[in-house]
User: Fold these one by one.
Assistant:
Number 1:
Amino acid sequence: MPLVSEGAFIASQHSPEGCRLVLLGAPLDATVSFRPGSRFAPAHIRQISESLEEYSPTLAADLGDIPFYDAGNINFAFGNVPAALATIHRVVKSQVLDRGCRPLLLGGEHLVTLPAVAAVKARYPELVVVQFDAHADLRSHYLGEEQSHATVMRRVCELVGAGNLYQFGIRSGTREEFIFGQENTHFFPYEVLMPLKQVLPQLVGRPVYVTVDIDVVDPAYAPGTGTPEPGGCSARELLLAIDMLANLNIVGFDLVEVCPPADHSDITAALAAKVVRQALLGMGRMAS
C-alpha cells in the first residue's frame, strides 16, 4: 500500500471527495547528519494538532471551512533512499496532483522536498520555491552523496533554476554555499519578515512551493529538531511569515525536520501543528 493511516490532522475530512488539499506524511529519516528521529514527526504533529483550535484569529478563518483530506503517511522501505524518493514523487503525482489537488507534506527530513518539488514542477513549469531554513542546504555533495538533507536545495535549484529559489533565515552553511546563494538565488540570511515583505510583490500570481524547515526558528522556541542552530527567528515571526503568504498561489507546501525524541514538552510539534494549520487556511483560499 502506498499510504498508511497515522491518525488525522485536526478538522480533516473523512473522505477525499470535494477536497482540493491533501495532507501527506513523508517519514523519511535516512541522511540526517546529527540527531535522527524525524520519521516520527508526521504522526506526532497530527496528535498535537488536537490541542489547537480550528479557528485562526490572525486569518479570521476556520479550518472547518477548508475541505482538506489527511491521506496518511507515504509507505516506503527504510534504507533505500532513491526508492523512497521515487515513491514520494509517485504518490504526490498520482494521489494528489493528478486528482486536481495540492499537496501539503509533513516530513521527515528535508530531502522529502526534492521529489515533491519535482512532481509539482511538472504540473507548474513556472514554479517558484520559497524556503525558510537555518541552513542553506546548497552543498553540491555531502559526505560523497548528491542526495542529502544538506544538498536538497542545490538539487531543487537544478529543477527550478536558482533564480526561482527564495531563501529566508539562513544562518549556517559553508563558505561555498553562502557564495553560491549570494550569487545565484534570492538569498536573505538571518532575517525572515523584512525581506519577505520586500519580495512578496514579485511572487504574486506565480505558482509557489513553500518549504519550512522548523530549524529556521531559534531552538529556544523549537528545540526538537535534528540540527538546532542558535540565532533564529521567533515562533511568532514564523507564524507571521506564513500568514503573509496567504494571498499567494501556493501550489505545494512542506514542513520538515521536527524531531520528536528531542522535543521537550512537545514545544516544537505544537509550533509545527500551528504552522500547518495556518498553511492549510492560506492554501484553502486559492484552492477553493
Number 2:
Amino acid sequence: MLLNVIVAPDRPVVSYLTPLTGLTADLVAAHGVPLPAALAALRLALPPAAVLVGQNIGQDVAWLGLKEGVDFAGMVDLTGLYRVFNPAYKSFSVWGQDHLASVLLGWPPSGPHDAAGDAVKSMRLFNLHARLSTDAAAWARATATLLASSPEPSFAKRNPSHEGVCMGNRKTCTCGAPFLG
C-alpha cells in the first residue's frame, strides 16, 4: 500500500454512517487530515503513468479533482468490464464490487467499506477479467454465474434513512430532495 488517508471533514458531521463507511468520530479525529493535505499526499504518491482501477472509478476521480493525463495516465472501470447483457430483462446488468468478489472470487460478504480492502478487490477482479477475457468458455461460465446470483440489498435499500441521513434511494427517499440525472 502506498497511501491510505482519512479525510477530516471541514463541516459538522450528521452521521459517519459507520456500518457503511467503517468511520467513527474517534477514528477521524485521531487520523483525519484536511482534504488539501490528503490530495497533496495522493498526488505525490500517484505515478503519472498510473492506471486507476476501480468500481465506477470516474466518480472518485471527479470528486478528487484529478485530471487524466496530468495526475495519472488512465482509468479502468470494473463496472464496464463486468457489464453483461441480461436476456431476461433485455438490458445490461451490472453488479457492485462486493457482489463480484463474492460470486467470482469466493470472498465472504464484507462489512463496512475499507479503502485498502476495496483496492485489493479491484485489482483481483481486474486480473480475473484479464484471464477470463482470453477464454470464451470461462467468460461464459462467469457471466452465467453472475446472472444466476442475486446480490444482497445495498445499505441504502436496507436502511432508507440512517441516523437522520437519507440514503437517497429513489424508491425509499425520506428527505424529498430532487434526484439528478
